[in-house]
Amino acid sequence: MSKHGALIVGGGLAGQRCAETLRRRGYDGAVRMVCAEPDPPYDRPPLSKELLASEAGEDSLAYRPAWWYEDKQVELLLGTRAEALDPAARTVRLDSGAELAYDELLIATGGAARRLPFLAGFENVHYLRTLEDARRLRAKLRSGARLAVVGAGFIGQEVAATARRLGAEVTMIEALEAPLAPILGAELGRWFAELHAVEGVRVLTGAMLESGVGRNGRLERLALADGTAVDCDAAVVGVGTRPATEWLAGSGLDEHGVPTDACGRSALPHVYAAGDASIPFDPRFGLHARTEHWDAAAWQGAAAATAMLGGQPGTPPLPSFWSDQYDLRIQYVGHARQADGVAIEGSPSERDFEATFSRDGVPVAGLAVGRPRAIPKLKKRIEAGHRLAARSAEEVAA
Ligand code: FAD
Q1: What is the sign of the dihedral through the CA atoms of 329, 199, 164 and 129?
Q2: Nearby residues of 162 by Cβ (< 8 Å), 6 or more positions away
Q3: Whole-angstrom Cα distance, residue 319 to residue 364?
Q4: Ligand 1 site-directed mutation target among 109, 132, 323, 367, most atoms within 8 Å of CB
Q5: Pairing between strand 218-224 and 229-231?
Q6: Would you state the pLDDT for residue 387?
Q7: In testing the pocket of ligand 1, which one of 132, 294, 325 has its CB within 8 Å of the most ligand atoms?
Q8: Which of 142, 242, 255, 324 is 20 to 30 Å from 278 at the Cα level?
Q9: Domain co-membership, 283 together with 363
Q10: Which residues' Cβ are closer than 6 Å to ligand 1?
Q11: Contact in structure between 271 and 182 (CB atoms under 8 Å)
Q12: What is the rounded CA–CA span in Å between residue 332 and residue 320?
């Protein structure tokens, strides 16, 4: 019988899956979740999609109804932040000053949006990570509003697509020559730029944002290094996320994201990490990589619970991701950064194609646009190519 139980810091997807798996596998110790936000654990992908267009979906956002937490005896400490970890004492200090002891700890504090310091202080500059962020941004997205989207990653692109659907005038500002080029390559990056341009977004690539100009705490204009000015009623910044792990400073764990083995074990005994806060080992590719994807966070949260109970979670699935833009479903699987070539099949101009990324002729990643059935096939091909190459973290380190 456990004394202090399992402590989960972070009430997002990975934390939720950890709690569910502990109970499903018969864990009878206390399970507590420390949740910085006031809302019980909820799903984030709709925040840049349907929920940005309408508040109608808010009721179905929670992973579980309130009674589930009571029934499963999972205690939620809402609106509470973890501030420090003392692994020797096996305690976590909260912002209230209270200390919680644990037998097993999961770090699942997710990611935080990277901020642009020179846009601080403007009330109409938005970041999108939480339900509250989505509510604030939604209030600005009316027809005819001028929205500047800074950063053309997947979140920036989804916001641009949703805003266009609502009739906003959207300018997308991207520092790279083509969106997502470091991951997908310039050719596919240009395809994404074109997708948005055709839908009426003003797409500025190779565009270095230099400053923001405004009055009375409101941003009115963004100035680019080449002299271009972008007038706006609101701006949303999507320039990536960082692991929300600064609270681990001084604990012996890296405060820039927690490296783990494939099951979520950190370098400290009884301390696990999962989801966007973690940098798990991928045994197929022999590398540690942050994934920042829904599927990975769900699997890792459940895997950490299994490992806490002495079980073997198995091989992690390939990293995979989806994005909904306009009427398109875009799916991605694998590690395209590992590729040295890409082959495209289908018709990019008709928004119906798949891309296979390879290294030395072996598939390492795939992208499917408007082809939901292509991904399982691409997964199989990537897995077939990498099953034999699987190496342990120790082998890679040696
Ligand atoms: P989170 O879900 O971020 O949960 C972490 C929780 O920890 C948060 O509630 C946070 O407030 C809390 N927390 C942080 N610090 C502390 C602290 N010190 N103490 C206590 N609590 C703390 N992925 C896809 O695959 N497809 C998509 O289409 C997609 N769309 C997305 C759209 C948006 C707008 C966002 C933000 C993400 C999207 N993702 C998508 C990514 C996916 O949602 C994340 O990968 C996933 O939510 C990560 O889960 P997590 O549990 O690691 O972190």
Answers
A1: positive
A2: 48, 49, 52, 53, 141
A3: 11
A4: 109
A5: antiparallel
A6: 53
A7: 294
A8: 324
A9: no
A10: 9-15, 34-37, 44-45, 47-48, 81-82, 108-111, 128-129, 155, 244, 247, 275-277, 292-295, 297, 321-323
A11: no
A12: 5
Q: Which residues contact 296 (CB under 8 A, 6 or more apart)?
A: 275, 280, 316, 317, 319, 320
CA distance 8 to 84: 14
Among 149, 276, 295, the mutation site with the greatest number of ligand 1 atoms within 8 A of its Cβ is: 276
How much is the pLDDT for 142?
86
Residues 222 and 246 in one domain: no
Same domain, residue pair 341 and 358: yes
| Pair (129, 229) in one structural domain | yes
Strand partners for 296: none
Q: What share of the chain is helix, strand, coil (3-state, %, to 5)?
A: 30, 30, 40
Structure tokens at 137: 């941004």
Protein residue closest via CA to atom 4 of ligand 1: 12
The pairing of beta strand 258-260 with beta strand 278-282: parallel
The residues of the chain scoring below 50 in pLDDT are 388-398
Same domain, 233 and 122: yes
- Taking the alpha carbons at both ends of the chain, their separation in whole angstroms is 38
Domain that holds residue 153: 115-239
Residue with tokens 């400053």, as numbered in its chain:
211
Is pTM, for the whole model, over 0.90? yes
Task: Please report which helix (H) or strand (E) contains residue 209, including its range.
Answer: strand 209-215
